[in-house]
Amino acid sequence: MNGNIGRLICWLPGALSITSRSVQKLPLHFWGPSPALTVVAVRNYAARKGTRERKRKVALANKAAKKNKEPVVPPHVKKLMLAKMKNLQNTSLFPDDSAFGESPDNVYLRNTHKHKIYDLKSAIVNFQEVHHPTMFNNPTALINAYLELDLSTKKKTQFLEDVSGVVELPHFFEAGKPIKTVCVFCKEKNLCEEAIAAGANAAVGLEGIKMFQDGALDAEDYDVVVAHPDILPELAPIRGLISKKFPNIKKGTVAFDVAMLVRKFKSGVDYVMSANAANPKLGIMQVPIGLVNMSADHMVKNYQQVVEAVLTHKPPNVSNEFITLAGVSSQYSTERFKVDISHLLEAKEDLEEEVKIKKEKVASA
């Protein structure tokens, strides 16, 4: 009896509905002979268009909010992250020692006293003594100029991203790197001959444009491509073939003295700044200035040349000191010595002031 009543109740909503669609479709065996029956109307047709659109927008908004929500970082993970950031910031060879006092003796703990500041030649001589044949016997160890840079610009949120180039040192030494291959573009035949005499691997005129287009010359075969200013505008058709090696005044690959350019890139030393991920204001570079068995005076001259080259990257109209710290480091040694180069910086400023005054006089004449 109960089974018949269940079937009747299941049939009634569909019969009484004002729509032609069925409200519920359930198998007959679903309704058993239970004494208590629950009737649930299930809609099996789509919601209204406006309702669907509203729900879709709500779902998209919830998804966007979930995506933009900052993840909760557990305390132990946050502690590890802070420790990692602290390590990234301490990339300097000379951590901040302003809170420490001067050492009363020449033997002291470096972590609890200020670093002693040496004159440039004395710091170099210290490494020559350490690597002497009677000590560690490393006569060909490299001596490096260590520089820390302030990368600030006129805008507080912008910093220099690239400080790099090639500097020709007055006293040559073998830095242990392969000699670069150089291709030179210049119109005049005598300039091409001078470039070849200086050591260029190739020196071509206007015919070189077609040679690059035909594949007789390939930019991949050369480390550096340099050019005389007279021929630079005519190299536009092969800009895409040369790509990043295309001669550029800012990169120092365009000059009237092409022989000088060849010597610079053949025997020069690269200097490249390493950025600090945690402190974008700080830039660090180490540039080789000589070997232990060289004259200390020669290495001092090389150091001066490196400083002058790096100072050319100082942003204009910035009052901050560009080189904030200088030192000397060495290959095969963990020692480092902080040095005073204030006289080099002052000489550079005086020279710039003289040039500025001369330009003003010429302009007013």
TrEMBL record:
Gene: LOC113202791
Protein name, per record: 50S ribosomal protein L1
Transmembrane segments annotated in the record for this chain: none
Pfam family, any one: Ribosomal_L1
Annotated keywords: Coiled coil, Ribonucleoprotein, Ribosomal protein
Signal peptide (UniProt feature, chain positions): none
Native source species: Frankliniella occidentalis (Western flower thrips)
Entry superkingdom: Eukaryota
Family designation: Belongs to the universal ribosomal protein uL1 family.
Keyword Ribosomal protein: yes
Record flagged with keyword NAD: no
A GO-annotated cellular component: ribonucleoprotein complex
Coiled-coil portions: 334-361
